[in-house]
């Protein structure tokens, strides 16, 4: 059986450059919604959980507002830099989204989680 890290989340071509979407992924602690942002050939991901009040950041399922290099939480307007996930405006300034490492190989986007870490329960 393939580990979750071995299965692609999507193809790079499925993602619109400069936009974010929501994808469900099986992480060591269970299934989570991810914010997946493509910037050229690079893809970043964070848990779709706002550090302010724990809400999802999308304003409609899988739809995120990106404005002037920040991702804006639909609940109360916290703004997170798209390069490092730090909140630079709004009610949780200074907090960060929790990054989820991804890899892109042969046009496929995958979780970069080590299967061994997943099995030992020490990931995170
Ligand atoms: S839950 Fe995101 S700003 Fe409040």
Automatic annotation (TrEMBL):
PROSITE patterns associated with the record: RIESKE
Organism domain of life: Bacteria
Keywords attached to this entry: 2Fe-2S, Iron, Iron-sulfur, Metal-binding
GO molecular function: 2 iron, 2 sulfur cluster binding; metal ion binding
UniProt domain Rieske: residue ranges: 18-111
InterPro entries in UniProt: Rieske_2Fe-2S, Rieske_2Fe-2S_sf
Keyword Methyltransferase: no
Pfam families: Rieske
Membrane-spanning segments: none
Protein name, as recorded: Nitrite reductase/ring-hydroxylating ferredoxin subunit
Species of provenance: Fulvimonas soli
């Amino acid at each position: 059986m393939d580990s979750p890290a071995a299965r692609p989340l999507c193809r790079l071509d499925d993602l619109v450059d400069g936009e974010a979407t929501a994808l469900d992924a099986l992480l060591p602690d269970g299934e989570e919604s991810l914010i997946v942002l493509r910037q050229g050939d690079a893809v970043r991901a964070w848990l779709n959980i706002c550090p302010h009040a724990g809400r999802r950041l999308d304003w409609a399922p899988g739809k995120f507002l990106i404005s002037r290099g920040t991702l804006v939480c639909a609940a109360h307007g916290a703004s997170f830099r798209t390069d490092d996930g730090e909140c630079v405006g709004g009610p949780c300034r200074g907090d960060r989204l929790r990054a989820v490492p991804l890899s892109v190989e042969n046009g496929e986007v995958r979780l970069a989680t080590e299967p061994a870490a997943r099995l030992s329960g020490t990931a995170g």
